Amino acid sequence: MALKPFDIEVNPPSEELMEIARRELRETPEVRANAVEELRALLREAKDMHFSEEEDFLLIFLRPCHFYAESALKMMRRIAEFKKTNHPLLHALKPEEEKLAFIDHNVVNVLTNRDQKGRRVLLVNCGAAWDPKAVSSEQLFRVFFLIHLVAQLEPATQINGIVVVLDFDGLSLKQVKALSPSFSRRLITFIQDAMPLRLKEVHILKQPYIFNMVWALFKPFIREKLKSRIFFHGMDMRKLHKHIDPADLPANYGGDRAPINYGGKEWYPCVYNYIEHINQWNTFGFLAQPQ
């Protein structure tokens, strides 16, 4: 059955994809089997945490950690810590509670196609297209968080990684004020410590001079690894094309594809289809301490 444009790919990886995983992530059947068993054993020893021990679930953490089980466990612990720290924001997170942010406001979007390296491309409209009075920075984060939960189910995304495009076209003080230091710190902490996806590149586009105020908020929290993957292009889409082939970009970004005519409204049903995974994720993390 053909994949719908607004759906994710959950089929087992192809031979071509497994060759990339072998080359970049050390993944072979033997390495995978050993790492899964080791991570299961480590989880059983970690009496203060609860996560699923199913192989497909453990691969979400093992792949970005190159199949080093101890590193995967450390990532799971950081995720549990992030969920604990941000409990009021993320507790019992449900797609239906963010439905209006998805369907009425085109703030977060995902290209229906992958780029030339097989990576998912996430678009975030941080400029004039974002009205913070309609979609608060907390809602923006929750939408982003829900999309990441669905993306992590794709073997191709686990292996090839993701690219984030931040479009600051028309940025004004209204948006700058919403991008508070607390939001900045939360977002960067999530990306660097608690997101089990391979973030390959971040592209910042169409940023006006006022963007310097935003960058001043984010910069102190960004470590060297992430900083080396952030690229500033302004209005020059040719600089973006050095990283993403124009054949895989819409006309909005100087690409050969048709202008984007879809958004969160089209992607929302896909997110809701994976409500079971989202509900499970809500139960994972540190165990409640007895009173």
Automatic annotation (TrEMBL):
PANTHER family: ALPHA-TOCOPHEROL TRANSFER PROTEIN-RELATED, MIP26555P1. GO terms for molecular function: phosphatidylinositol bisphosphate binding. InterPro entries: CRAL-TRIO_dom, CRAL-TRIO_dom_sf, CRAL/TRIO_N_dom, CRAL/TRIO_N_dom_sf. Pfam families: CRAL_TRIO. Gene3D superfamilies: Alpha-tocopherol transfer, CRAL-TRIO lipid binding domain, N-terminal domain of phosphatidylinositol transfer protein sec14p. It comes from Anopheles farauti. The lineage of its organism: Eukaryota, Metazoa, Ecdysozoa, Arthropoda, Hexapoda. Residues 98-261 form the CRAL-TRIO domain. GO terms for cellular component: membrane. This is CRAL-TRIO domain-containing protein.
